[in-house]
Design a protein that fits this description.
Length: 159
């Protein structure tokens, strides 16, 4: 075969269009089943989106029926949110991801403690917060920030 044809064939086989079409056949049967509604548009999707969907389908396949039900409920909740609310959540998530690991851990721990409270207690705390004036809320935020700074380990100068 002529060198020009080999180069053309290599470029064709390495082209995104060819790889996108082949990407569907590379998926497992379970991933294809979960993602079947995307089969016709799979080749037209950006590679990043295909990867996210494929990983999601892989996680879905590994879930128990109870985990799938819970994930479906969370997804339904997500879809029911307004675009503005979803944008706010994405923005807060990006802020969270930019935090140092110890701050992320503190937030996860606070979230875990919050979820351990019974529903009535959480509602009482929400109601109490809503009844506060903006000044009272700010005082609480300031106290929390001050406590956090006091409890932060101090760095020692180099010996």
């Amino acid at each position: 075969m002529n060198a020009k044809w080999l180069i053309a064939l290599a470029l064709l086989l390495g082209s995104p269009v060819h790889n996108a079409q082949d990407a569907w056949t590379v998926l497992s049967a379970e991933q294809q089943r979960v993602l079947s509604r995307f089969a016709d548009s799979w080749a037209d999707m950006p590679a990043e989106r295909r990867e996210r969907l494929a990983l999601g389908a892989e996680r879905w396949a590994a879930m128990s029926p109870d985990q799938r039900r819970a994930a479906s409920q969370r997804f339904d909740q997500w879809r029911s949110l307004t675009d503005d609310r979803r944008a706010l959540i994405r923005e807060r998530y990006e802020i969270y991801r930019s935090l140092p690991p110890n701050e992320q851990q503190r937030i996860r721990e606070n979230f875990r403690r919050w979820n351990q409270l019974n529903r009535d207690r959480r509602q009482q705390l929400r109601d109490r917060w809503r009844q506060m004036t903006p000044e009272q809320r700010q005082q609480i935020r300031d106290r929390i920030r001050d406590n956090r700074q006091r409890n932060r380990p101090r760095s020692r100068p180099n010996d």
